[in-house]
Amino acid sequence: MAALASCGFGTVRELLKRIVLGQALAFLNSLTGVSTTKLVNSNASYPVLQSITAYAFIFAFYLPAFLFIIYKHRAQRFSNFRFLNRWWKYAILAVIDLEANYVVVLAYQYTNMISVQLLNCFTVPCVMVMSFFVLRMKFAVTHVVGGVIAIGGLVFLIALDADGLSRSERGSQEVLGDILCLISSSLYATSNVLTEWFVKPSKPAFIFNCCGGNGSGEAKDEVTQASPSTDIQEPSSIFPEEGEIYAAEDHTKVPVFIPVVENLAMMSSFALLFSTIQFFAVEWKMFKPNRSSWTGQDWLFQMVFGVTMLLVYTAMPIIFIISSAAFANISLLTANIYAIIWNVTIFKIYPTKLFFVSYVIIAVGILLYNLTDIVRIPFCARWNYPCGDPFKENGNETETDAEEQVHEAAEGLPQREAGSPSKESGGGKQGDATAKSTCGVSTQLHEQQREH
Question: Which Pfam families does the record cross-reference, listed alphabetically (predicted)?
């Protein structure tokens, strides 16, 4: 409990920043549902055409920005980034992202709404598993518990029809529709993890952020800092040659926004090309005879969909940088909650009182997930951190370290470094004596012993 109490305003500020950004993303995502629903009600919804509109807006905004950045930094070299390095990776990302958007809309034609909404929760465990293996993230048990609680809140919302929607209609081929939902969830997870990999080319990802000993709640270690600095960290070794682009001591690190702009500009370029080809191959025959019946309102909602998707795709990488793709997808679970606001104000569909219970459950899950990132949870630490205590591994001294070092100093035992394993934990090696100084309490005990 003392570990939690030592976290001050900085921790609260970091927690609020993550939650607000995550909820803003979910709110924007719910706006895309409003546009799509309006188009469906007017028989003017074409999944690939909507994807073309979204990618066109992203392309029109970010490609000029990317070209300007290239021109501005044409004579500059960065120690951890090179423009258009392995450009083909953006083509792969574009295909995955395009088909994820297409398959989930297609699933509605074969199954019912409850199946689509429930099976889309499969994105969260997919992202966590892929982040563990691809990005080498270290998740705590409380991360998993927070995700399960948030998913449980959404299941509660849908299973009890707390949002006021009728889900009695059955799809024509439910098994096929459910399979499409699972495929879409897997594709979304892959797209999100790859995007995080491309825009945050750091060392093996470390999503924990320990409260420092200064009581401000800010992390000591630059690697564990959740907030993006002006520079990003050194590139990952997943692409081995990228870490050897330029000598780190000769060039500065790239500003954090440049990989984001390059990713969105290049991904949207390929996605716009691929979606246009897919549109003429799949939807043109259906769209051609009906295009004359489109009203001004249909075109308006098509444009609104494109603008909101631009905002969603802009917010996603920002959240990936300050937190992770897993947190972004957990936050997106609340998009169904915000959709109820539009159901009430626009579509005149009213939720039941259980809606508020569902919202609280999801909020608790999101809060627990974020607290695990920012604060070391002292209860059952060995059980909660099966991959190792991340705060100790990164040299951040905890209250337990200080107590053990005071005890060792009082008994005249050799001092160990903060964060190194104690005898009880089975650690057998001593730290480098020149690496770091011990805590202030232990130093005072040494001085008292020398005086006597």
Answer: SLC35F
What's CA 292's distance to the chain center, in Å?
41
Taking a C-beta distance cutoff of 8 angstroms, is the pair 108, 320 a contact?
no
Residues spanned by the domain of 408: 397-451
Instruction: State whether 114 and 167 are in the same domain.
Output: yes
Yes or no: say if 223 and 233 are a contact pair by the CB < 8 Å rule. yes
DSSP secondary structure, 275-339, as one string: HHHHIIIIIHHHHGGGGGG--HHHHHHHHHHHHHHHHHHHHHHHHHHHS-HHHHHHHGGGHHHHH
Query: Rounded distance, CA 237 to CA 86, Å?
Result: 14
Last residue of a domain, one of 323, 351, 381: 381
Element (H, E) at 411: none
What angle do the packed helices 47-72 and 296-322 form, to 10 degrees? Answer: 50
pLDDT tens string 232-273: 444 444 444 444 444 444 578 889 899 999 999 999 999 999
- How many Å is the maximal CA-CA distance in the chain? 97
Confidence at residue 272, expressed as pLDDT on a 0 to 100 scale:
97
Residue 290 sits in the same domain as residue 196: yes
Residues 369 and 418 in one domain: no
Q: Is residue 344 situated within a structural domain?
A: yes
User: Does residue 387 sit within a domain?
Assistant: no
Query: Rounded mean pLDDT of 37-55?
Result: 89
Q: What's the total number of domains in the chain?
A: 2
C-alpha of 17 from chain center? 14
41: pLDDT strictly greater than 60: yes
pLDDT in tens, 339-369: 778 877 887 777 777 777 887 888 888 888 8
Q: Residue 91: its pLDDT value, please? A: 97
pLDDT digits (tens, 9 = 90+) for 206-215: 333 444 444 4
Q: Are residues 53 and 189 in the same domain?
A: yes
Q: What is the pLDDT of residue 373?
A: 74
* Distant-in-sequence, close-in-space partners of 238: CB < 8 Å, separation ≥ 6: 134, 197
**Dihedral (Cα; 290, 293, 297, 303), 10-degree rounding:** 30
